[in-house]
Amino acid sequence: MTGLTTATLDTPIGPLAIDAASGGIVAIRFAAGPGPVPAAMPPCLEQALHELTAYFAGRLTAFTVPLRPGGTPFQRAVWDRLAAIPYGTTISYRHLAAALGRPAAVRAVGAANGRNPIPVIIPCHRVIGTDGSLTGYAGGLGKKQWLLDHERRTLAPARP
Question: Which residues of the chain have pLDDT under 70?
Fold first, then answer.
């Protein structure tokens, strides 16, 4: 992809490599370690770094950074619906398929969820099994559990 700029952010779930191109974020990858610091960053990448930092600090519950994921029309429809799952809540694959008007497409929805190129911002971690169990996550189930717990803690009322 031409014009791709990448920056790495250290987070509580490990380093995230954020890729920006064409005025939006195109991917977030779980990185092995810090990457090179870009000489210049497009505004959307600076915004993503700022928003992700605020999210992990518990100060942001909704992302506004422009996104430019690739994918098929069906995948993009699934990712759009993922982005609409409220902060701190979960939904099952079955309910996600039904929300898309495709109740028989549970496996296809699961596959699209697994191909989400922009985890955390497009919150695929909020999708769980019908029985409430954690299911696959590209970064591993430990990271998925951390994200869900983080959102619940952030929403929990402060104790006196």
Answer: 1-2, 157-160
